[in-house]
Amino acid sequence: MAALPPSSSTPRASHATPLFPLDEDLPVDEMIAMCELAEAAAAAATDGAECLRHSRRVSEAARDMAGGDPGTAASPPTSTSALDNSLPAQKVLAEIRAHARISIEALFENVLELPVEMALAYRRRGIVRPYDWQCQCLQTPGVVTGERNLLYSAPTSGGKSFVADVLLLRRAIHTRKKVLLVLPFVAVVREKVAHFKSLVSVYNARKSRREALRIQAFHGNKGGRGFGRCQIGICTIEKANALVNKMIQEGSINQLSCLVVDELHMMADQQRGYLLELLLR
Length: 281
Hints:
Blueprint: E1 2-3, H1 28-44, H2 48-65, H3 89-100, H4 104-112, H5 116-124, H6 132-139, E2 150-151, H7 160-175, E3 178-183, H8 186-204, E4 215-218, E5 232-236, H9 237-250, E6 256-261, H10 273-280
Parallel strand pairs: 1-2, 3-5, 3-6, 4-5
Helix pairs in contact: 1-2, 1-3, 2-3, 4-5, 5-8, 9-10
């Protein structure tokens, strides 16, 4: 299993004005190279003002890589707050990384090979650039293709669902097999079904009825005993256990290409934990 818990110090996206100007039209690979250069610059900096001076050199170097005129690089802001010597270099680096992360469209097109329309649906919800740790999870060799398992953790509202959702979508679209998302509560299942239906609507609009992705909720008496014609099953722990057992009995378990379990700590629950353990074993 690939264990990739994100660091608690991972910077989050900032909506404030960046502390130094960055040309967002640069290609993604050059922006990443710029970010790496900025890390080295921040490591060498002793205070905020020095880090900003290094950042200007990094910006000019990035423009050189893009084939532009380094003399056209914009100067860093000259406000007192931006040039305050007490400004930690780490804060400047956080700003650099926040504006140099790969865009949601580039992630969907180049890494996940998913329709860019789905990326735009995430952008409308405010997800413009995934966090570094999310990209690390998705770019771990073998994870996207289903050759390796992925175990990861993050704080509440830290972005765990995004990684799981796009992996499910990728496997469903590229393999045309079944995928299963296991959630602890009925209310969460209902909410997730609505979320996935809004995501795949842009995909289904361009596909025939036969090629369209079908989503089904499984909880209580809802959803029946098997997958049927649906591809994306979203279910409670009890329903997931029943669905997988039925596929094993029918000899069709090879049609399940991806299984995602949210709230894995529920395995320690005295009443329901054993079902998760049986499911994963």
